[in-house]
Amino acid sequence: MPNNPLQIVLNANDYQRIPERTGGGAVKDFYRGRDEAFVVHQQKLLTDLDQIGRAMGRGDRPVLAYMHVTLDEDAWAKTRRPTVKVMPPAKVPLVGGSNLGDMIVELTPENIAAIRGSINEAEKDVALVADRESGELKPKPSRARGEVGAIRALRAHHAADRRSFSAEEAIAWLADPRTGGMYLVETFIDPRHADDERTRALRRRAIEAYGDLQQGLEQLGLPLEVEDTGQRWKTMRLLLLRLQSQSLAAHETLLRFLDEHPIVRRVALPPILEVEHAAVAPAGGPTVIAPPRTDTGYPVLGIIDTGVTALPTLEPWCIGRTDLIPGGGQNRSHGTFIAGLSAAAQVFNPHPVFDEVPCKFFDLGLHPTQDDVYDDVYPRGFLDFLEQLDAELPAAIATGTRVFNMSLSIERPVSDAGYGDYATLLDEIADKHDVVFVLPAGNLEGALWRPTWPDQPVDVAPMLAAYRYTGQDRLLQPAESVRAVSVGATDPPDAKGHLRPAVYTRRGPSTALGLKPDVAHVGGQGSHTPNLLSLNPAGATVAGMGTSYAAPLAARTLAALNHLIEGEVQRETLIGLLIHHAHMPPLLADAHVSKYASDFVGHGIPAHALHMLETEDHAITLAFVGTLQAAHELTFPFTWPASLVNDAGACRGRARMTLAYRAPTHRQFGAEYVRVNLEAYLRQEQIDTATGEVSWKGRLKSEGKVYERHLIEHGHKWWPIKRFEQTIPRGQGNSSQWRLVLDSLCRTDVEFPEEGVPFAVILSLDDPSGRAPVFNELRQTLRNSGARIADIRTAVRVGPRV
Length: 802
Hints:
By secondary structure, the protein is α+β, with helices and mostly antiparallel strands. A 7-stranded parallel beta sheet has the order 17-18-16-19-21-22-23, with helices on both faces. It has a 6-stranded mixed beta sheet with strand order 32-29-34-27-2-35, with helices on both faces. A 5-stranded antiparallel beta sheet has the order 3-28-33-30-31. The longest helix has 22 residues, at 35-56. The two termini are 24 Å apart.
């Protein structure tokens, strides 16, 4: 029985140091042995650049342009990008991106000639240079040749990049009172940064062009209201344009002006925030929930939803509420169902998968269910909703609430080319208040449901291949949020206890191939009568289904975990522990299925919160929590448990490691919005028996030398959560000395945050046979080594309810 507490390394930051940096690798020649093809490619780039330059001077618009630089897939890595010779950011501003491997740069008459010169400078014939060690003649391409070859194509940012809807579609969409009736306009420059001396010098023309945009809007002579969100939000800046006219000609005039102005990056229609559609079956009889015990402390879950009905059986579990919705027409069934799961999921659904510490809840009834009321409460649509949420959170936080379930989505799938506005602002709120949002993956409408997940693993691939709506079943925004935990849905356990993805649950990956959802939980079965039970507003038992009901079950575990750990804990520690201990259902762990499973259930089903904090004698879990500083790496040395090391120094056992970090992001860069990458490694000392030379060998999967796309897709490079596992059944290596290493990499023209990047690394070592005294051995050697470790202390445990 688990009885050993998780161990926290209290002085993890003491193991940071500035490592010695090696020089960059050799320049890659993308056209090696194909000189004639290189010349054709070079001339094509020059022609395209000249065409963009000629268009830049047309008409009476400001003289600048924005250009997409599409890279060869092998040039996605930072060291191969054309940012040293051809387009150095100090001369050619890198202002954004869209898809992976797509850079957007700012062109002016001053820098376009320099770009042309650098492209033209690349040699046709690569020189042969004698190798220093072997003396053999080898081709040595110049940096210009390598960078020109790295570029696949150049093209201007044009009207099709700016918007994807017609004026007629806009008028119809903006007529919905939930939209706020305004266009969202994003530009290529944020005037808030114009006070910076370097920005003023480098982007003088862009600053002037922004002024021209403002002046041009005034000169259109339209009944137009213009609002700047720059004073409200730090991470995103939009112009809100509300045209007080239903005239098609007026909307076409405005949109044509925006299409043609070079400083405009995109014009979007505002999203509509909706309760996640969740089917509900007919109600049964009334249900009574036992009240919370007065001698016990409970975790608190925030419920951001339609509001919770003040039922006598639920009210003892409510620790506070905010209800801004006027009138008696509000439908609180969705929020009430979620509150019932928070307080008593295992009472309604008696199965071990629902066992968790029950939660009290803070009711944030912020979402109106009537369209006309929505317009009254939130005249600017989703932006007003988020501002209200921001204002209401402190009251909930004061009651001990840190985890908030928000089963609200917008009917827009995540995009491969960019990070959503909603997710961006939600991340900013999470950082500001130091809270965790838990979000649903989203539901498919009935016509898009997949077939029931097969019993036999070999039947899964054919089922998915035959699905007619591939691509239409992606996650709904804001489930791509990198600060939030996103949750998919499974059917309830079948007669054999198996869990399988629900037919309605939406699938990942997220933007830029990121692994989402993070986890999954039971959401009710879609192919039969819904069979996840909770309460309706009348206090009766009712069945429902939806990812919006799976999300609060996972959120409840996260809230319980936060409650059980005494004192302050970083959000990354909570998320890291949740991911680290999640387990893949057996039906999805098979080799035929595992490569698909994460798109539906992420890392798996959360473990019980108490089980995350305890281990058995044959295992140990260590938490390294801190803030990585610029140019530093963390290197933590330790000795492998002696009982798992043979006389030759070979080490056996199993290692599992999870990294969660607070990734700096910038939505302007599209799919490359995560701007700093942290990587964790587990390395074993390797001793050359002939020379005695010592090296360090990576022992976790995905540490091999692979292409950048593979690293992103399978190693989750640039993704803020990474999980690794390796079993060594017979022993490897010849030394018991190991290191845990954490290092970082920044994108081009990105400075590592001065305040550092918060992280949590969770490392578990165990003996798969269940016999070796791993816990005592490793804890003792760590203490002898000078590491400051401590047991994680749990708060008063909640006993079983009667």
